[in-house]
Amino acid sequence: MLLAVLFPRGSFGCDHFLWSSAFGDFDTAVVRGGYSFSFFLSFFLSFFVSFHSLFFFFFFFFFFFFSLLFLFLRYSAQMQSIRPSLHGRSLPM
After folding, report:
1. Which residues, at least 6 apart from 53, have a Cβ–Cβ distance to it below 8 Å?
2. Could you report the per-residue pLDDT of 26-74, keeping only the tens digit for each?
3. 18 touches 49 (CB < 8 A)
4. Do the Cβ atoms of 4 and 18 come closer than 8 Å?
5. I need a labelling partner for 51 at 20 to 30 A (CA). Which of 11, 22, 41, 85 fits?
6. Where are the domains of the chain?
7. Cβ–Cβ contacts within 10 Å for residue 43, how many?
């Protein structure tokens, strides 16, 4: 929605980058006379619009996974520190 406001249809010679696939504007750029700024802009924006949700999914998945792993390792280290040692010593009762 914000991209449609910033770059309305027809701006930079690019008519449909919000609705195209990542490689959809190649033929449009070639037909209009070669590689232009609009082609690269539309390629980048369509690629970002198409795949940004996938990147955010993987980012949050790995963040959640590693935070749980960190909490588990911290908890197990705490449990190791209060557990009686196995080297012949015992905690006083």
Report:
1. none
2. 445 445 555 555 666 666 767 666 666 677 777 788 888 888 888 888 8
3. yes
4. yes
5. 11
6. 2-82
7. 20
